[in-house]
Specification:
single chain, mainly beta, Neuraminidase, five-stranded antiparallel sheet, 32 strands, 43% strand, globular
Amino acid sequence: MAMNGKMGTSAVMTVIVGLAFLMPSAFGQGPGRWMTGVPMPSARSEVAVAAVAGKIYVVGGFGAGRQLEIYEPATNRWFRGAPAPRAVHHAAAVGLNGKLYIIGGYAGGWSPVDFVYEYDPATDVWRKRARLPTPRGALTAVVLDGKIHVLSGVGRNRRNTPAHEVYDPATDSWRTRTPVPTPRDHLAAAVVGNRIYLIGGRVDGSYARNLDVNEAYDPATNRWQTRAPMPTARSGIAAAVLNGEVLVFGGETTSGTFDEAEAYDPKSDRWRSYAPLPTARHGLGAANVGGRIYVIAGGTTPGGSASSLNEILSP
């Protein structure tokens, strides 16, 4: 799993794909309607995706090296930004204060890293920030109260880490908070109200050991609480918030990929099913822009597959 910038200040942005029509899809049952946007120029999976101020940024993953690709939903076009400083996959991405942050992941094969990079779309420039205290891949991150919470993943011992570390961009510093109760990787996280919801994932990198776990973090008390489990245990997922619910998309297991789109309502502590993904996949990204969720990239078969898909959910 993004920035506020203007596509054409001092940055040199290359338009990749021109305007195209959104094609509606009648696929599936349940609430929500799927449409198809212009595909991403590159095919990739295990991407980092984030949205800020009406644009979606995709970086890293298998199949793309250092490429930064930027989608503008208002025009249904893709652009290219300055390449990321390092090629990573299974990283985390968030947007905050008009900047894109890429955190952790794997590099040089499957070595967990502590890289933190900040991208400014107004200048098309990357810069290095304070290193992640616990190097890890297949992690997740969210923004809460102006800070970035970085959660769990796989550490350098190839086991899950419960690390919960919080980055403050104002001071370029980190602090530690209460560890994740159920360490895992290939998980998803989202913020609703003043709580973080940490959902799904797998044990020590094995998608034969998928989880349905749903845990909520309250920053006021620095405590975690167990919530209603996800109906379908899965990992390699993506999540985004829509109308106060956390929607969780896709995933993989040993026998195939998931098309599930399941929504969690924190107020009722209940789950419901949305219209499934038109294309089942894992290692995908999701972002809400303008009340629609854009589900981008991902592998259509378990393991190292990739796609350029851009499927859009309207409520």
